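Feature request, filed as a ticket because there's no other form

It would be nice if the structure record came with a short human-readable summary line next to the tokens. Right now we just get the raw output. Example of a typical job, pasted below so the devs can see what we mean:
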Amino acid sequence: MRGTAFSRACEERRWTRPAVFLAVYAAVAARLGEPQELTARQFHRWRQPGPPCPQPAAQRVLEEMFDTPLHHLGFDVPAHRRRDTVAVRAATAEAPRAALRFTVLGPVRVRRGEEELAAGRPQERALLCALLLRRGRTATAQELVDAVWGGKPPRSALPTLRTYAFRLRRTLGPGVLVSDSGGYALHTPADALDLMVCESYEAQARSARAAGDPPRARSLLHQALALWRGEPLGGVPGPYAQAQRARLAEWRLTLLQARLELDLDLGHHTEALAELTALSVEHPLWERLRALQMLALYRGGRQAEALRVYTDIRHLLAEELGVDPGPELTELYRNVLCASPALAPAPPPRRPPAEAAGPYHAPRPAQLPSEPADFTGRDTLVRRLTGRLAGAPDPVPPVLALRGPGGVGKTALALRAAHAVRGHFPDGQLYADLLGQDPAPADPAAVLGAFLRALGIPAPAVPDGTPERAALYRSTLAGRRVLIVLDNARAGAQVRPLLPGAPGCAVLVTSRARLADLCGAHAVDLDVMSPGEALALFARVIGEERAAAEPEACRGVVAACGFLPLAVRIAAARLAARPAWTVAALAALLADERGRLDELRIGDLAVASCFAPAYGRLAPEQARAFRLLALAHGPELSATTAAALLGRDRRDPSVGALLESLVDSGLLESPAPGRYRYHELLRLYARHRADVEDQPFTATAPTSRISPSPPPL
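Raw output as currently delivered:
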């Protein structure tokens, strides 16, 4: 076979063995985001004289492997697909391109400088939007399939998705769309997406308004609203885009309301009135909007028309909904009726002279996200956490480390406890998602910078280094009572710079890891819900009447979910979105273990996606153990059973260390020394990974003959 150019090139690189060639091909394909499937038969066919031209994706991988155009290796490549070496090398040495810009607050567009790039077909735009709205986070292939096609994807969805990704990568250029753990992510600067620019304007406007600078806040909101160019995500199909479109449209109304309030506060009632009138026609039942319209009319000397607005909305609410106007609108009506002086515009804030001005202090931060509306159970743990957080101040700030596996509800519990005690921290609450499960977790220096600005330190005064920022942070918190919530931490080293140094503050940390290296932290382990709590959560989401009609089926569903809150919430959300389904129908789908994880997904929420980041960070030896240990039957396994499954000597001390490392990663539980078990859904996930990655082993593994030893008496 030495006669062909392709064979000679393989021999020069020592790729003549099919296994070696296929491994190199798969690695290069993964780096380029191309399909990795290739058979030994295809490899042998390429080594024959006159090999046929591969598909475009395979052509790109081969040209990357050999660093030469494919027709130089003897392949019959059509003229329009040929790339000579000069062109390939020149492309890598071209001048830096202009920055990319993406717009989603209107029709979806991509620009490079002043040039508008083709955003592709509707489904390709749906893929682009799904990646953009994840803000750099990796989306799995299945999540993207759901986003583009919804619940009924075509059979060729995955190959088609890869084709769309290839076209998108070719449009955007190198280094923008990257492959990661079987999925995709867009790596772009924060100011490349108009949505994130708009969010930045909103945050600055909120800070300016709180700092007593309403004119600047109004100007910033004008800039934010100027970014909108019509219906968001215009022309993008799919259920994901539809849900995001509704969310963004609601957010725009929130921005508009804030700007109109500032218009009236600053005396621009005449300018605002025309816009308020048009919006009232578009949203006739929006009471806050009608209140602003009444206020604008009254301040413009049109008292009678302001009263008529109230009469109109009162009749409309009675006819449409059978309710009366709310307290705010009713109180405003009374004030307009008696021409209350309280309706006069407030005078502009007086600023002290520059020489008399003291140091700038921002208002107390209130950064806690809202707690889940359907939070259920956990009463004992809530009391335990709130008692520690709101107790008498200790000489050392209390640090509570809430630890548990993915999907167990750590964030929901932390927010429930934090909201319950926020009154005990009058100087504010700080919150940060440390992105512990992301490929790039949050940098403590960046978090410190955000906290310092929220605490009133002007941006130019924030130092550069992490130690300097941490020192200023501790100094700023001294003498204050502030609650700090650090969500989704990866390790203690990420948390330590964010801890206060003086008494009065308290810290609540959530993590999948044990954070044993976080000295002084009080660990609180969070397990799955009790059957009663899981059933109550399920009934709360689907409706009490629906749950009462099929109690046995409801118990079957929550049991199949392993009482894991995330799984229960996903199952309930699926049922709530399908009113024609019975609970028994969902229970039957979940009864099949082989397809259970596939059923536990809705939108961009999936139980398997929750487990994937922790698994992806395992070392190869840990990942293999996690997969193979799940093949044992029974609720628990011993170190001896684990050694047998892993092919180790039963007295090998490294087996115990390996098992404990999986416990520390949150992928395995240890109910007693030397005893280990999986959560049922984690076991199914591990077996799925074993089917994918260890097919030769799992096909012949004698799992029926390896049973874990019974628990000790």
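Something like this underneath would help us a lot:
DSSP finds 32 helices and 16 strands in the chain.
The CA atoms of residues 90 and 150 lie 41 Å apart.
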